[in-house]
Amino acid sequence: MMAILLKPGARVVVQNALSAYGREMIPLMREAGTQLVAGVAPGHGGREAQGLPVFDTVAEACAATGADTSVIYTPPFGVADAIVEAAAAGIALAVAAAEHAPVHDVMPALAFARERGMWVVGPNSLGLLSPGVGMLCGLPPAFGLPGRVGLISRSGTLSIVMLRTLSAAGIGQSTAVSIGGDGVIGRRPVEYVELFDADPATDAVVVVGEIGGGKEAELAEATARFETPVVAMIVGRSAPQGRRFGHAGALAGSPAETADAKMALLREAGATVCTSPAEVVEALRGLPAPVGARRQGRCEATT
Question: PROSITE patterns, from UniProt (predicted)?
Fold first, then answer.
């Protein structure tokens, strides 16, 4: 079973493991097959969290368990410090759940993480789910279905909606990622699509974008170079310019940040643009090479 980011055998540490959210999500991550090895809660080393040994620091947890992945359940004002601590300890992949982390704290923390080679999903993320491999943070494992479609969404809620819609239609996922709804996040949509495009287990990518920012415009500029088909849905078409909807990143501050403008750019770049989850399903079913056959065809053509 292939997946992007979360690989089989990843060893996961839970930061702020004694929090209510952490305690609630630990069983769900286990249910999905995630290999949880430790929790971190400063000042509580030696305790247990849902059967996980708890350490005072991420560095101690990594030294004792070989952890290489982290889920960060710290409150907003602790997100930046938690990201820096994880990156300094050698963590390769971290998911930050909290919404509204202070921007001026998070920006240098994310820069430090990138310098250290740590991929950060979020902040303001429900995490990622690779059906058959594992789940990090909070995407419901029961909504996933193993398959060959990648999914990214800025909105956590829409991640769940699209995940459930695809699975109900019998379209499985290689990996689904709630990339983060805050204005400043660890990685841009185009970086995720680059991973999916290089993944032999992914035949198409669904991108759920929304008003605000230039992330979808950047993706449109890069779409032509991807071999993997991109199916996009941009929400917020009825949102008045200048009014924030939902989370921090959903604010169209200029005409270029509206849903209509982003849809036009993506359509011109060659992406299939949809206006509803049902249309996304039909678009995937209508791809020239059916999902599940595209990569096989490429391999046969090169042998």
Answer: SUCCINYL_COA_LIG_2
pLDDT, tens digit (0-9, with 9 covering 90-100), for 153-208 = 999 999 999 999 999 999 999 999 999 999 899 999 999 999 999 999 999 999 99
| pTM, entire model | 0.92
Helix (H) or strand (E) segment spanning residue 61: helix 58-65
Tokens of 24: 């609630």
φ/ψ (deg, to 5) at 64: -85, -30
pLDDT in tens, 219-229: 999 999 999 99
Residue corresponding to tokens 């992330």: 215
- Domains of the chain plus CATH, in order, are 10-123 (3.40.50.720), 125-287 (3.40.50.261)
Structure tokens at 83: 């990201």
User: Does the annotation count 44 as an active-site position?
Assistant: no
What is the token pair recorded at 200?
């032999």
Interacting residues of 113 by C-beta distance below 8 A, sequence separation 6+: 83, 84, 86, 87, 94, 119, 120, 186
Catalytic residue among 44, 100, 104, 247: 247
